[in-house]
Specification:
Layout lengths: L13 H10 L4 H26 L9 H24 L6 H25 L5 H18 L4 H4 L1 H8 L11
Helix pairs in contact: 1-5, 2-3, 3-4, 3-5, 4-5
Length: 168
C-alpha cells in the first residue's frame, strides 16, 4: 500500500485510522488467511476439547479448553503487537503503540484470569481475549500486501509471478 504524506492538520485522528484499518483489508484472500490463522492456531484447542470430552468428569474439566484458547489468543496478540509496532504506514504511531501496549497487558490479564478461575467461567475471559486478539491481528495486518492483494496471489498461483522461477 502506498503511504500518503499528509499535512499535520489533515491527518486522520486515531479512532478514524483504527476503524479504517479494521475495515480496509477484507478481501477474499485476506479472509482466507484469517481463516487459516484461526483454524490452524485453534487446532490445539480442538485437541484439548477432544481430550477433555473423553474424561468421565468432562464438565468439571471444561476450563482446560478455555486455558488452551487463552494460550492461542496470547500468542496471536503477541505477534500482532510486534507487527503493529513495526508498521511504517501508521499516521498516529504513538497512539497505536500505546493502544497495543494496553491490549498486550489486557491479554496477559485475561490469560491470568482464565487460568485463575478453574471453572466454566474461564470461557468468558478467554473468549474476550480471543476476540480482541483477532481484531488486533486484522488491524495489524491491514496494510500487509502479502495477504491482501488478490491479483498478486492469483498470479503466484498461476506461475506468473517470481515464485518458483529459480527451481530446477
Amino acid at each position: 500500500m502506498e503511504t500518503q504524506v499528509q499535512a499535520p492538520g489533515k491527518r486522520k485522528n486515531f479512532s478514524k485510522e483504527l476503524l479504517d484499518r479494521f475495515l480496509a483489508p477484507w478481501t477474499a484472500i485476506f479472509f482466507g488467511y484469517l481463516l487459516i490463522m484461526v483454524v490452524g492456531g485453534g487446532i490445539g484447542v480442538l485437541f484439548t476439547a477432544y481430550e477433555v470430552a473423553q474424561e468421565k468428569n468432562a464438565s468439571a474439566l471444561s476450563y482446560k479448553v478455555a486455558e488452551s484458547l487463552a494460550t492461542f489468543f496470547v500468542a496471536l496478540a503477541a505477534t500482532s503487537f510486534i507487527e503493529l509496532n513495526l508498521c511504517k504506514e501508521l499516521h498516529n504511531k504513538k497512539a497505536f503503540m500505546t493502544w497495543s501496549y494496553i491490549l498486550a497487558f489486557l491479554s496477559v490479564g485475561l490469560l491470568w484470569l482464565t487460568y485463575h478461575l478453574k471453572n466454566s467461567n474461564s470461557f468468558y475471559p478467554s473468549a474476550i481475549g480471543t476476540l480482541l486478539a483477532v481484531m488486533m491481528w486484522v488491524i495489524a495486518n491491514a496494510d500487509n500486501d502479502k495477504i491482501i492483494k488478490e491479483d498478486d496471489f492469483f498470479e503466484q498461483m498461476q506461475g506468473k509471478g517470481n515464485h518458483g522461477n529459480n527451481w530446477n
